[in-house]
């Protein structure tokens, strides 16, 4: 594969690809103009990674360059940050929830009970998108409902509301506040942060120490 072809745009295209796809859909998912997406898709067709089909392209999954690039992604990019960022390339409706909603709303300032060997990521996914989500996870070898390592814990729902916070989609702040208030002893510091950051009135009850 030509070194000029292996660039961030092409990597995003290869990650976001579906088995049968269109240039307009790819363009939307990766946030690149149609013209530039078309240029890099043409390069991938020339490399044999994609094959033209009426009004679209088909991934050639047995292509050695394609397999090597997916292996490279799995061995070098698959860290916690990748698990968060890659969801935007799937073209599905999702929303971070629970501990991860707290993490997003506190802008990364509050994270609890997680480390590299055990890092569950809580997300909501629409039922209609779940099969697509699993297909991406299988292809990119991303963990789902595991007991160790980095992995997603998806909550599958018919419908839900999410809002954009920075680069990510997350459940509304009020829902996250209710979650923290319900689990007050784990999230008391986070509630204080949220109160100051967003001017919210939050329920914070400190247990008084008794001495005998």
Report Rg: 20 Å
What would the principal axes of the Cα set say about the shape? elongated
- Put simply, the count of helices is 9
Order of helices and strands: HEHHEEHHEHEHEEEEHH
Strand content: 15-25%
* Oligomeric state of this protein: single chain
What is the total domain count? 2
Mean pLDDT: 91
**Distance N to C terminus:** 75 Å
| Low-pLDDT stretches | 207-212
Helix content: 40-55%
Strand order of the largest sheet: 4-5-7-6
In this structure, how is the largest beta sheet organized? 4 strands, mixed
Structural class: alpha/beta
Task: Give a quick precis of the structure.
With 212 residues, the chain is of the alpha/beta class.
Word description of this protein:
This protein has helices spanning 8-16, 23-30, 34-46, 64-76, 80-85, 98-105, 130-140, 173-182, 184-198; strands at residues 20-21, 50-53, 56-59, 94-96, 118-126, 143-144, 149-157, 163-165, 168-170. It starts with 7 loop residues before the first helix and ends in a 14-residue tail after the last helix. With 212 residues, it is α/β, with parallel strands linked by helices. It has two domains: 8-75, Winged helix-like DNA-binding domain superfamily/Winged helix DNA-binding domain (Arc Repressor Mutant, subunit A), CATH 1.10.10.10; 78-176, no CATH class.
Features:
four-stranded mixed sheet; alpha/beta; disordered C terminus; elongated; 2 domains; 44% helix; 18% strand; Arc Repressor Mutant, subunit A; three-stranded antiparallel sheet; 212 residues
Topology, element by element:
Layout lengths: L7 H9 L3 E2 L1 H8 L3 H13 L3 E4 L2 E4 L4 H13 L3 H6 L8 E3 L1 H8 L12 E9 L3 H11 L2 E2 L4 E9 L5 E3 L2 E3 L2 H10 L1 H15 L14
Parallel strand pairs: 5-7, 6-7
Antiparallel strand pairs: 1-3, 2-3, 4-5, 8-9
Helix pairs in contact: 1-2, 2-3, 6-8, 8-9
């Amino acid at each position: 594969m030509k070194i000029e072809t292996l660039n961030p745009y092409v990597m995003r295209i290869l990650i976001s690809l579906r088995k049968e796809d269109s240039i307009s859909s790819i363009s939307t998912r990766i946030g690149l103009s149609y013209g530039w997406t078309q240029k890099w898709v043409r390069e991938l067709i020339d490399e044999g990674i994609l094959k033209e089909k009426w009004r679209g392209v088909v991934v050639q999954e047995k292509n050695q360059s394609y397999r090597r690039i997916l292996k490279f992604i799995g061995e070098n990019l698959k860290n916690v940050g990748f698990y968060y960022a890659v969801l935007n390339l799937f073209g599905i409706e999702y929303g971070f929830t629970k501990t991860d909603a707290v993490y997003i709303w506190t802008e990364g300032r509050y994270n609890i009970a997680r480390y590299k060997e055990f890092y569950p990521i809580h997300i909501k996914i629409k039922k209609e998108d779940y099969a697509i989500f699993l297909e991406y996870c299988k292809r990119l070898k991303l963990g789902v409902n595991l007991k160790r390592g980095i992995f997603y814990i998806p909550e599958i729902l018919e419908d839900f509301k999410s809002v954009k916070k920075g680069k990510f989609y997350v459940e509304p702040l009020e829902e996250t506040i209710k979650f923290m208030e319900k689990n007050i002893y784990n999230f008391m510091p986070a509630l204080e942060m949220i109160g100051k950051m967003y001017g919210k009135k939050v329920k914070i009850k400190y247990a008084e120490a008794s001495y005998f």
